[in-house]
Structures are given as C-alpha cells and as structure tokens.
Amino acid sequence: MTDDFEVLVVNDGARIIRASSWIGLHWKLPFLRVIHHEKNMGYGTALISGFRNALKDLIFYTDGDGQYDVREIHKLLAHLAPHIDLVNGYKIRRADAWYRIWLGTLYRLSMNRLFGLSIRDVDCDFRLFRRYIFQRIRWNPKAGDLR
Prior knowledge:
Layout: E1 7-12, H1 19-28, E2 32-37, H2 43-53, E3 58-62, H3 73-77, E4 86-88, H4 98-115, E5 126-130, H5 132-135, E6 139-140, E7 145-146
Parallel strand pairs: 1-2
Antiparallel strand pairs: 3-5, 4-5, 6-7
C-alpha cells in the first residue's frame, strides 16, 4: 500500500525479549521500532507508549496474538475519509466464552446509549486512527492515563 510506514512493537517488560536481539533486527528491518518498558506496566500503558511514539499520520493498531489478519487493513482504509478520524474493525465470529460475548454486548449498548457511539464491536483491537487525535489529548505522565 505504501513505502512510508513504521512498525512499532511495545515490549511491556517481557524478559524473553532482549534489547540486543532487537538491535540486530533493526538492521534488517529499518522500519521496525521497539519501545521497551523495564517492567510490565499493563496493556493500557503499552498502547499509550505506542500512540505517543508513532511518527506517521495514520496509526493502525492490533494486538500481536494473531486474532486479526493485518492484511485486511485495506478494509479500514476504504472507510477513512476527510471527515472520519477513526475506523474500528469488528470480529465476524467471536471465539469468546458466552459471558464475554454477553459483557461485550452490554458494553456496546451502554456506549451507544451514553455516548451515541455506534461501534459494532468496542472490544475489537483492529483500529485505524489519525495521529492528530492523540496530539490533542492531555496525558497524565505519572499514571500513563488519558485525560
């Protein structure tokens, strides 16, 4: 799709990945950037680290557990327009336990009712954002939270 991209990997305190092994990879894959947390700081902080360190105008993110096919990013790009800043994917078939499906449905309905968000799957980690969204957020550096 483009030659102008970067891949950010946030290593959230995993001891199995050494910084020295990533340095060798960077020579082979110059688009790869790795952000290391000395200790595990949690999923939310890992996401914030990635968003704050992204350099390109568009940010696509997904988890690294293989639930989504990153080759389907073109489906998100097809819905991006000048007046649209975020495109959210959704799972066609959820492989979750019944209670997680039920909680996800409850969460989606609550977000729709309370905030008018018409997102089909609020738990889907297959999203495309415009970077300037994150430049407008005030960050709380002590807690790593958004405000």
